[in-house]
Design brief:
Layout (H helix, E strand, L loop, with lengths): L2 H17 L3 E9 L2 E9 L2 E9 L3 H5 L4 H17 L6 E8 L4 E4 L5
Parallel strand pairs: 3-4
Antiparallel strand pairs: 1-2, 2-3, 4-5
Length: about 110
């Protein structure tokens, strides 16, 4: 996927989250382990959000591999240490397709 398409998917994901009461804290946080697409907050909980897009839900969600989730966790740890954050957090995914946007909350291995 091109960076331009990725940016469009991330913006659609941000709009979707904001419509549902999330506050966008940061986008595209990088560490040596990888990138967090969106960091959002809702109800005192920090949400580390991976955005995946594709022609359909199944094709997009399959791209969240154990390796990708491991890199997200390591990057989130860097973020929390850098920001001195010590509260509740979860890892979510937002899947963007041409016709829909859907959140998958609390993804795990």
């Amino acid at each position: 996927m091109s960076r331009a398409k990725g940016n469009v998917a991330e913006q659609r994901a941000c709009d979707y989250l904001m419509e549902r009461g999330y506050a966008i804290v940061e986008r595209n946080f990088y560490s040596r382990f990888g990138e967090l697409d969106i960091i959002a907050s809702k109800g005192g909980v920090l949400h580390f959000v991976e955005v995946k897009s594709g022609e359909d839900f199944e094709l997009a969600i399959q791209n969240i591999t154990p390796r990708k989730l491991s890199r997200m966790i390591k990057t989130a740890n860097v973020y929390m240490k850098k920001k001195s954050y010590d509260s509740d957090f979860v890892f979510d995914a937002v899947v963007v397709t041409p016709l829909d946007v859907e959140i998958v909350e609390n993804i795990t291995l």
